[in-house]
From TrEMBL, chain A:
The keyword Lyase does not apply. Belongs to the binding-protein-dependent transport system permease family. It comes from Fuscovulum ytuae. This is ABC transporter permease. The keyword Transmembrane applies.
Length: 316, 291
């Protein structure tokens, strides 16, 4: 287990180093430098020179990369070109909003997805199963930001039940929850279908296992077999999918946050891209990559703990 | 693993029949065909010029003259949606095509080339797929500036690692097969093994994966254009129409409602078709990209 954990962590660190180098190198692949990119075509040479110096761009590139790694290790992701605020502060300010959105979206999707997946297994090959199959595929494919816009029109504009924009008042939990409902619905809906299918497939495989046959032979009720003996086993493979899927949840969140003007990582980075605020974009991408790698690695280690067969092969 | 390429004409006909007998696959095929026709014949189908302004006719709800109404500049929405199909499909098919070709070549190199090269390529594929898709896309857009070319490049960059990994796995499995060893023993060169034996057998799963990826790519194009980071206005990208409609949400909600429909139908169509194809061609299921 320890050897596996070390190799898995090593791989993640290696990937992070490659990503960091690539991110930093990308700026040098294109004509112009980050200073001119940020300041736009109308900036004076003096202004550019000052910014170049402040960003350390007058140093040799290897020195720059060295400093960059050192700074990131110390938690310094650079300074916002416009507001002069540290990038990490801005990220940490809005990250909880995005994290809560992601967790709530994944949470409700998992709950409903498990129920629907089990329903499809209990009534397999009936019309319920077929209907759930078509519904699952349909909700998987519909883009989350379109769902978000439709939900906003119906529930915020026409019915006026829920707020259309923002993340709720600070310190007012009720308003924060109300502001979370529509975004979490839009981000999670695709995952309901995906998880329902995944649980169904995984369950059907588990239902063939000897311990289920034994349970049947003992005359247990089908419902107990499904929920108490098949589900706990069938749910293990979904852990790694959930972790990898958190990346796509975050991607949906970027669009959905923008639709609801909800402060978060998505609104932070899209605003920065528009203004070509390179330090903020790069810092956010690095932060989110690091976070995502952390989630995936943790999930892999968790699965290796739960399922010894995984430890034998390093899934790279 | 069975594949499309080595199927005989008769087998191919039965693939078609199997797809037609599956209601979901059939619905997907119909939708995709409709959108393809719309994209191909946009100049002849569209009743108006998609970017012609007619400010006097702005914000007209759907009527006999404008079936889908007009937007804030009086442009006919139906015409914009029809031309939007050309943009959406053009961009997605071009970019997944390029990504597929790159993935095919790199995957074959990784799977059949020297071990050290394989390790380096796998590390690159892994690193690129560990960036959550949208953040990587946004980083590239910041550096290059938004636009159609950037959009295609972004889609190629986020798509090809998954394709390359699929091809690599397929190649590795095949390279150890007895018939390849037999060919080698008979003195076949690397070129013959790659083009005659590996290539035809690895293409099938790639086609399925690409087809299942098209809805993701259509969504990405529309999403980035919606954020004003993709196709530049006044081009009638579905994302642009949505974003313009969003700005007039309270004044003319039908713009957003109408603009979302083609996006929903197109992604549904390609997903249904991909699912149908996968069930027919590869019952064990190909890998799917998430994130």
């Amino acid at each position: 287990m320890l050897a596996y954990a070390i190799r898995r962590l090593g791989l993640s660190v290696l990937i992070l180093i490659v990503v960091m180098t690539a991110m930093y190198g990308m700026v040098f692949l294109v004509p112009g430098d980050p200073a001119s990119l940020a300041l736009g075509p109308r900036a004076t040479p003096e202004l550019k020179e000052a910014l170049r110096e402040r960003m350390g761009l007058d140093q040799p590139i290897l020195t720059q990369i060295f400093y960059f790694f050192g700074n990131v290790l110390r938690g310094d992701l650079g300074i916002d070109v416009w507001s002069k605020r540290p990038v990490l502060d801005q990220i940490l300010e809005v990250f909880p909003n995005t994290l809560i959105l992601g967790i709530v979206a994944l949470g409700w999707a998992l709950g409903i997805g498990i129920l629907l997946g089990c329903a499809a297994v209990v009534w397999r090959d009936s019309w319920v199963d077929r209907l759930l199959g078509v519904l699952s595929v349909s909700v998987i494919s519909v883009p989350s930001f379109v769902v978000a816009i439709y939900a906003l029109i119906v529930f915020a504009v026409w019915l006026n039940w829920l707020p259309a924009i923002g993340a709720g008042e600070k310190g007012d939990l009720a308003s924060q929850i109300r502001a979370l409902i529509l975004p979490a619905f839009a981000v999670g809906i695709g995952w309901v279908g995906y998880l329902a299918r995944l649980i169904r497939a995984s369950m059907l495989e588990v239902m063939e296992a000897p311990h289920i046959r034994t349970a049947r032979a003992f005359g247990m009720r089908e419902r107990d077999i499904v929920f108490r003996h098949a589900l706990p086993v069938a749910i293990v493979p979904t852990i790694s999918i959930l972790a990898v899927g958190f990346g796509s949840i975050l991607s949906s969140a970027v669009f959905v946050e923008s639709v609801f003007s909800r402060p978060g990582i998505g609104t932070l980075i899209t605003g920065a891209v528009e203004k070509r605020n390179y330090p903020v974009v790069m810092g956010t991408v690095l932060f989110m990559t690091g976070f995502y790698l952390l989630v995936v690695t943790t999930a892999d280690l968790l699965i290796a703990r739960l399922d010894p067969r995984v430890r034998d092969v390093l899934r790279s | 693993m069975s594949s499309v390429a080595d199927a005989s004409p008769a087998a191919r006909r039965s693939i078609g029949r199997a797809l037609l007998s599956d209601p979901m696959g059939l619905a997907g095929l119909a939708l995709v065909t409709a959108f393809l026709l719309m994209a191909l014949f946009a100049p002849w189908i569209a009743p108006y010029d998609p970017i012609a302004l007619d400010v006097r006719a702005k914000f007209q709800p759907p009527s006999a003259a404008h079936w889908a109404g007009t937007d804030h500049l009086g442009r006919d929405l139906l015409s914009r949606i029809i031309w939007g199909a050309r943009l959406a499909l053009g961009i997605s098919i071009t970019s997944v095509g390029i990504a597929g070709a790159i993935g095919l070549v790199l995957g074959l190199i990784a799977g059949y080339g020297p071990r050290w090269l394989d390790s380096i390529l796998v590390l690159i594929f892994d690193s690129m797929s560990s960036l959550p898709m949208i953040f990587f896309a946004l980083a590239v857009i910041t550096v290059l500036g938004p636009g159609t070319t950037t959009l295609i490049l972004v889609i190629v960059l986020v798509s090809f690692p998954a394709y390359a990994r699929l091809i690599r796995t397929q190649t590795l499995t095949l390279a150890g097969a007895d018939y390849i060893l037999a060919e080698k023993a008979m003195g076949a060169g690397t070129g013959r093994i790659i083009f005659r034996h590996l290539l035809p057998n690895v293409v099938g799963p790639l086609v399925i994966l690409i087809c299942m990826d098209i809805p993701v790519v259509i969504m990405l194009e529309a999403g980035l254009s919606y954020l004003n980071l993709g196709v530049k206005p006044p081009s009638p990208s579905w994302g642009n129409i949505l974003s313009e409609g969003y700005n007039a949400l309270r004044q003319a909600p039908y713009v957003v409602v109408v603009a979302g429909i083609p996006l929903v139908l197109a992604t549904l169509g390609f997903t249904f078709l991909g699912e149908g194809l996968r069930d027919v061609l590869d019952p064990r299921g190909a890998g799917r990209r998430w994130g």
